[in-house]
Amino acid sequence: MKLVKTLVAASIAAVLAASVSTAMAKDLxxxxxxxxxxxxxxxxxxxxxxxxxxxxxxxxxxxxxxxxQENQIKAIRTFIAQKVDLIGFVPIVATGWDNxxxxxxxxxxxxxxxxxxxxxxxxxxxxxxxxxDSYTEGKKVFNWLDxxxxxxxxxxxxxxxxxxxxxxxGTVGSSAATGRAHGxxxxxxxxxxxxxxxxxxxxxxxxxxxxxxxxxESFIKSYRDKIDILFAHNDDMALGAIQSIEAAGLKxxxxxxxxxxxxxxxxxxxxxxxxxxxTVECNPLQGELFFETAKKILKGEKVPKSVFVEEGVFTSDKxxxxxxTRKY
Length: 328
Ligand code: GYE
Description:
- By secondary structure, this protein is α/β, with parallel strands linked by helices.
- It has helices at about 1-25, 40-55, 70-80, 100-105, 135-150, 175-190, 210-225, 235-245, 265-270, 285-300, 320; strands at about 30-35, 60-65, 85-90, 110-115, 130, 165-170, 195-205, 225-230, 255-260, 280, 305-310, 315.
- It has eleven helices and twelve strands.
């Protein structure tokens, strides 16, 4: 009898413990400040964060900053006032976060960074960051390009001795733009063919389709018969640029080689249609890793300071085959 009682008591305790732990999981409140909705990539990223929060039973306070750092700072300040358990955010630009992160630290709320990188005076202002390796993406872009030029024996359209490149940069001051620019430049400088290339023009298109189209239109106005190559820091700007290239009576992917970053469905479709040449993958599906890491932090477990998600490179000849497997 005594044994039975003990067993009953033990199982009641186990049930109680289990229900307490699920209740705890449900009670976790995480504030998340997203940049906005500037690209197909960003939409996939947002959807993934929301879906992962549901799977993890998180009470998610999601805030969209509409491309403004000041809105992100306001959102973070609100999360602090609401005493959330953890704050996550995507830094729209790399700098300008020290003060608000100090406020979070004073309130003892851990901060987990997602996607873009940031630079702060004191690394203890955030617990960890997960995201993409923009520098390596930029290198992969150039290396793909250099290989393509070599294999196809690409010659300058203007009959000159250099292949002219135009660049559509991402948001000024964002790690995604500076990383991709540096990676591309470093790989170019390291190439044995570096003298083949000339950077004709480089300007921001703010990661949007609309600005990609506008800036490409102005590049074409100035250099119509000179541009051989377009490097767009994201697919959306490349998709906008394709419209301008076609409107000018030029053939995208033929007159102008087009390479960009992200790997969204839109660029796969363009590759299938023969209008883009390659995309270097940047993986927006970071929600799972984000909430796994957040839970570990809140349990007091140690997590790596910085983790990059895995990414590949896709070319137009494989686009149709790969398309059905793409998740974003
Ligand atoms: O490449 C672009 C987006 O931060 C890596 O932001 C991200 C970039 C992505 O708007 O499409």
